[in-house]
């Protein structure tokens, strides 16, 4: 500690001294530019002040210390380092140095010698007292902390400072008077310390107690707060609270009531049906536009870039003005009301988020339903079906609202059950009204003339379905508590066991509603989990031998809606399922070079993908892999049975649907269809027909006649039915080895071929793509014995191809014409309020860059200058050395010459003397 | 013998003991006959023990020069000398022992015994080499060629698969003399065998030969060839094994006589696969392979595809003039080329063949057009490769760029390209355009359509690397598509009514009505 102190002091002193020496180095070097007039607020320029001489000498000194040293050491390998203690410290006196060295010596000696010393505990002391003794008290200075004030207690002062004097503990020490001996000072102090410790301990205890109490109170409070928040909107909750806290006075109650009362939020006015319909339409338009963009493979960024790179005309003022900007509204009033163009609102809608998707969904359904109605013929059966499904969906959403209410008061379920009936009735009435409203919305879109009629119809249906729904809902309520979500497929199966499909769907609906993400934290996760479970269940259902289409349809809707709630995770789930199936398939493929057609669940999964995800995207993380998978199925699975044909046709159909919007080219499908048609050609006398087939089909083979009619004579009058999905399963109920199946399959193949041909009409290689099929059909597959419909399909296709061929022009290919880059012809830019004082405008980034550039330049300049000065210094040094050397030499020469001349002189003198002598 | 029913291990011990005795003194020489007898036992342990015993005995006795190795002419005047008699008797035993060993090498079920026999024989070869009879070494090397020939004959069995034994034999190929004489004897053996089987030697035999031939590691240029198994009398003298030329000639002869046979197709492919890398560079005159390669090239299918490689090496490095090469290559471009195993190899080779920029433009154009036509039936995984291939060809032959860009010209009635014309010069590919590639701009896979789009623009000057697309398979593409994740996954916005909507394409083809509903209508 002490040492540290001194070193710091040293440091400060040294610094001070250094500063002084710097300034004082040479008074002649100091040059001060004196200012004649001091102007307030005027900044001094750089050269108006300062001491150039001083800084120069400083620089030279520094160079002497560093550069010169290096220069002098330049050819030396070794260096003498003086490690003696304090040798480099000019501040130290000789005595200090000696002292330190001695201490150091002792220390090293001690360390060396002490390495083996045992049991030699040095007793540490503090003010002559052993530290080990002092440490027994936790805080030796505790008396100073006795009070918060830090003062000694009065009693202590009295006792200790004023010694007791006459009143020497007359009453106090009565218990100890037996000893009759005045206490020693030591004892007294100990006693005092003990007392203070006791007091301290008590205080601590008390504090702990209060802390405990407070915590308890907090806990109670949070518990009750929880209840409070839930119940404030219910009037019933208040008396309960009173029971809990009877002593609370009216004012408190009032304050809390006011504090926790949910305030009514300002809401928008209800929109009219027209507005809703228009909004819906706009939404759909926007989505469709988005889809179109994705189909072209453009991302948001591309679009932004395109907008940035748009053409700038010479007349463009570059003020951001754009003609295409319908958003600008003219503010106008009429009859005191704000005039707005149609479809515009004053404010963006801010209705709560939970309600919105439901309403939207509901509505979009209605819209699409109505579209379907218009487009389709008056197909009665289908129509009413649709109505039904519409209806059920409507119920679903109504149900959801009810559920939400339920959930709000979930812990009041028991209470509610008592007066359930009355409330239920009320709700029903409300719902009735609601329903009518929604139905009206739906009706509004439809054509005007059958509006009335439909409305009455709808009314009837709602009333019917209402009864059913009520029955189902009550049954469900009595049996199930669906407030948990299944963790795995097993859980779900337990839940659904023995239930009819309708009930199962209802249960799923309830589970989903109970775990709506808005209701609790973590519900989103649960729903994502539910999605994967339902997907698993979907696969399981699909693999059942008679495919339960009804249930699958219901499940599909659920899966779709769940996916809408959390797109990313659901896409991941589908991806993993797809991946697993693919790996299974691919491993077989790589081992054998071929594979068998996957099970029904995989095939239906492809279809499901097209329901949940948009298939027209240029690149989609689920759809593209699915398409690759399907393409591989079509190229790798040899056709050996009727089931294979059915599977292949199914995959082709799925492909057709995938690319129906984007009209993308799938060569695999065309090759596959060609192969199927080849299977229907009668191969005479072992000679392979001179038509090319592409693997997985072979020219010759055991299954080469798979689709050739066995009894061509009586097949002409057979009726053609669409293929049942049952053919896809591994052991179908219906036999595929019949002419019926063959005709249907051939018919389906021809239909698909026609559809694809129509779709690819605009491909430049249309003829090349379809020429193998048209060759096959025109030369080998005459289909004379087939029913009329099949023959029609064939002639239709041939007609299409010949038409196309006659019209076809094969324009030579050319590179895409690149747009010539326009020269940017800007008007000169005038800054209206140009201020030379101010820095250039620009973004923060730009400014930062500029600043850094400037700094870099300055540093660069500085470094160059330093280097130049270093060089100058060295040159000077060398010159100096040279001059010194020369001078030395001169001196020596002079000396020698002097010596020689004196010698010569002497010599001459002696010679003279000799002569004289002689 | 009573030992027959005894424990085989005990017999083996007994054999060991007898061996020691034989080696200790001549008194126990009769033990050799016992060992010869036990060597024919069925027990593997006994056989193994006696085989190694025989080897030990005779290599030592050969060392002592006690074994007579001349011709056994029957009883002569020398019989009088008991010493000579003994040595003659030993010579007889030696021949018997060799017979047994060779028999074991050729016909035994257990490959360990075979290996043991082989090792024993090779030890004896070395022993014989150390102590040559005056006749045996015609040249300077003392290599016992006769014995070795016998070994190779047995090794190249026409009945059993000898691959494991040959694998063992491989270790000896580091010795230059063994390598050389293997080829020599193999060549001899092949000649005799082909004579023997007039039509075609059995497949197992050919497989054995092939295994042996492929196991050999030939020394490189300038390698030191003095690692000899049997050291010659004069170690400094030039002898056959030390000459690379000799080695190569023997190698070439062996291969050529092997390839003269009609090979089974799997072996054929294997040979063709390795020919280019492992054989041609090591042959003394690779041109001798021309007949074989041209024949293979004319076979068609995968074989000719594989023969390409060797043929090209000959053309490229050994100045072979092959007039119809490109025409035949053109004929190899057929739809099945995308569906065979060797697709990547084929396209790699085709790329190499067409590397030269001195190929006439019409030829390049014919290949380009043919490829683009074929690509219509290619699987997805090959399409990227094909498109890169085409674009590279277009870069090499700027004259061919009319196929993708013709600045003037009117629409034609049909594609002038004649698909069925076998001559690339007459197929009119130069008048055509790559409409197929243009169609691929609408391909369903984004990578393919992007690659096709690149061909719709002026080409960048640098060629693309074909090799990274050659081995691309669908599973890789699948993985890549799965991993390229965008932060947002777009969703379908049309709300479904079920798995199959009423409007979608399944409507007419598939019966997608729920079955229960139908039942309902039936019942009601």
Automatic annotation (TrEMBL), chain A:
It is found in: Nucleus, Nucleolus. GO terms for biological process: maturation of SSU-rRNA. Residues 262-290 form a coiled coil. Residues 138-147, 387-412, 420-447 have a biased composition (Acidic residues). One of its GO terms (cellular component) is nucleolus. InterPro entries: Nop14. Keywords: Coiled coil, Nucleus, Ribosome biogenesis, rRNA processing. Involved in nucleolar processing of pre-18S ribosomal RNA. Has a role in the nuclear export of 40S pre-ribosomal subunit to the cytoplasm. This is Nucleolar protein 14-like. Residues 1-37, 109-248, 297-318, 338-468, 827-849 are annotated as: Disordered. The lineage of its organism: Eukaryota, Metazoa, Chordata, Cephalochordata, Leptocardii. Belongs to the NOP14 family. Pfam families: Nop14 (PF04147). The gene is LOC118413614. It comes from Branchiostoma floridae (Florida lancelet). The keyword Ion transport does not apply. Residues 170-188, 203-218, 234-248 have a biased composition (Basic and acidic residues).
TrEMBL record, chain B:
One of its GO terms (cellular component) is nucleolus. It is a multi-pass membrane protein. Its main location: nucleus. GO terms for biological process: ribosome biogenesis. The keyword Endoplasmic reticulum does not apply. InterPro entries: ARM-type_fold, CCAAT-binding_factor, Noc4. It comes from the Eukaryota. Residues 304-452 form the CCAAT-binding factor domain. SUPFAM superfamilies: ARM repeat (SSF48371). It is found in: Nucleus membrane. Belongs to the CBF/MAK21 family. PANTHER family: NUCLEOLAR COMPLEX PROTEIN 4, NUCLEOLAR COMPLEX PROTEIN 4 HOMOLOG. This is Nucleolar complex protein 4 homolog B-like. It comes from Branchiostoma floridae (Florida lancelet). The gene is LOC118425476.
